[in-house]
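Re: beginner question about structure tokens

> Can someone show what the tokenized structure looks like for a real chain? I only ever see the sequence side.

Sure, here's an example I had lying around. Input first:
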Amino acid sequence: MAIALSRAYKSPIVDTIQSLPQHQQIVLCSVVKLFRKGKKDTTIGELNKFYIDICKSTLIPPVGIMELSCMCRVLGDQGILKLGQSRDDNLRRLTLQVDEADISFALQVQ
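And the corresponding structure tokens:
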């Protein structure tokens, strides 16, 4: 049943998310978990805290803040995130450009 549903409702964005490298998927999980608290945008610095928590809970070594910022730029280039402007990367604002449900479905976020 689950296979039939996934084939029927799978979108190109779901395929894109599933083909992302592991750390970029963790970044998206972090965004979804952060936005479930009612937020619609955040900063890279705040996202970094959630990202590190998820990495620790899954025993995956986190990347540094500069690499996280680069991953956010890549996700922005792919149209998944929208990044604001700031001289300090920690203060750059970001928002989701895709539906949280697509990310949750693609990555089975609990």
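Each token stands for a local structural state, so reading them left to right follows the chain. The mean pLDDT is 88.
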